[in-house]
Design goal:
This protein is an alpha+beta fold and about 425 residues long. It is built from 12 helices and 7 strands. Helix 1 packs antiparallel against helix 2, helix 1 packs parallel to helix 7 and helix 4 runs antiparallel to helix 5. The longest helix is centred in the middle third of the chain and has 38 residues. The termini are far apart.
């Protein structure tokens, strides 16, 4: 059964009305997310355009002023889709440019007619304006800003706006390069069906993008310590799974466990606010000291864990001493005054045949307890295994001479 234009316009308006209601609920619950309001406006504008076209008898052409209003509404819908995508990805939106893109089709069409251009050329200009906005929207879906992760659902929007662009290119080609009728029941029916299908992809894509990013944000929060911004245990496990996919497949490396000395007395004296300040500043000092490839996590309370992939025993202890010195040599500036803080560190090597990560952390933890017992503010390594065990990492003997307590020269501390 052939669908008539009235049914198609009604279905288009009804589906867009449903999406408007869905996005209104989302926007009211997340008022600060401006992209939700812009996408809702895009759906509302196209819904109004479909409702107006329902009032036009299918056997007659709509009056000129109705045609221009509908084009303005559909153009505004495209512009709001584009600005919503920019807001979603945290990119600035120029209001003046957006308004100009909305107004341009309605201004350009009568100007061309007054200048003596043909009706076909005037409508081709309107479609060209719409094509520009569609290409801008498609570009936003494939563009990747620095430091951002691509969403899988962006592909839905890329496909939908790409199809819209092809439709506009085909329409412009027909208007400019052929003498085919500009409007017929068959062509309008085909365009309405295509618009319905692509509209579903576009609006479903918006919902999918918002849901996917919200899900990723929740996962990131679950894997991040909110106070220090470092990974927590769960986040570290995820990083380790990516870096060390299975036992026997990862390179040698080292693990450090750091514990702020007498942290309870800091909390007792300066309150939890002062303790939180020390933890956050301590984490920042660690990140500034370590390499970008090193993995840092808040292990619990005042304990932190560092994984140094590829480090040999000498590098591991040099980095540990550099961390100790970076804390001990510079007091932390609290509102109440400068506060000297020290840290105890336990170090352990991780061989390529390590059966589990828990084993190396237990050895590092044992070394940490020894550093605490021997007076704090020092680095202790795991006990060297007896020669018969044959434990060696990359041919380097773990039996190292004790490190001096004084700060090592910076040139000696630099990693290879």
């Amino acid at each position: 059964m052939m669908l008539d234009l009235y049914t198609l316009h009604f279905a288009s308006a009804a589906s867009r009305c449903a999406y408007v209601v869905v996005f209104l609920v989302m926007a009211l619950s997340q008022r600060q997310q401006t992209y939700l309001w812009q996408w809702m406006g895009a759906m509302g504008a196209s819904m109004l355009g479909s409702l107006i076209m329902m009032r036009v008898p299918s056997e007659t052409s709509p009056p000129f002023w109705i045609t221009m209003i509908v084009y303005w509404l559909y153009g505004g819908s495209l512009v709001l889709s584009w600005t919503g995508l920019r807001s979603f990805f945290g990119r600035p939106v120029r209001i003046d440019l957006a308004l100009a893109l909305v107004a341009l089709p309605g201004v350009l069409h009568p100007l061309l007619l007054c200048a003596g251009a043909s009706t076909r050329l005037a409508f081709a200009a309107v479609f060209a304006c719409c094509l520009v906005v569609v290409l801008l929207a498609a570009y936003e879906t494939v563009r990747l800003s620095p430091g951002t992760e691509r969403l899988w659902s962006q592909s839905i929007e890329s496909f939908a706006f790409g199809c819209y662009a092809l439709v506009f290119v085909a329409s412009i080609t027909v208007l400019v390069g052929t003498d085919w009728p500009m409007a017929s029941a068959e062509s309008e029916r085909a365009s309405m069906i295509l618009d319905q299908v692509m509209g579903v992809f576009v609006y479903f894509g918006y919902v999918a993008m918002a849901a996917e990013r919200a899900n990723r944000t929740l996962l990131r929060q679950a894997e991040t310590d909110p106070l220090t911004g470092l990974s927590n245990r769960r986040g570290l496990q995820k990083m380790l799974r990516h870096r060390f996919p299975a036992p026997g497949q990862h390179p040698a490396g080292g693990v450090l466990i750091l514990d702020i000395d007498r942290f309870k007395s800091i909390n007792d004296r300066y309150g939890h606010e002062g303790g939180d300040f020390i933890l956050a500043a301590f984490a920042a000092r660690m990140k500034a000291t370590l390499r970008a490839t090193d993995m840092i996590a808040r292990w619990g309370g005042e304990e932190f864990l560092v994984v140094l992939p590829g480090a040999n025993p000498q590098e591991l202890l040099l980095v540990a001493e550099r961390l100790r010195v970076s804390v001990a040599d510079r007091p932390f500036l609290l509102p109440a005054g400068a506060l000297p803080v020290t840290v105890s560190i336990g170090a352990a090597m991780m061989g390529p045949d390590e059966p589990s990560f828990e084993g190396v952390t237990q050895r590092a933890d044992t070394a940490l307890y020894r550093a605490k017992a021997e007076g704090r503010n020092r680095v202790c390594r795991e006990p060297t295994p007896p020669p018969e065990s044959g434990r060696a990492v990359q041919g380097v003997d773990l039996s190292l001479a004790p490190l001096p307590s004084a700060a090592l020269p910076l040139a000696e501390l630099r990693l290879v």
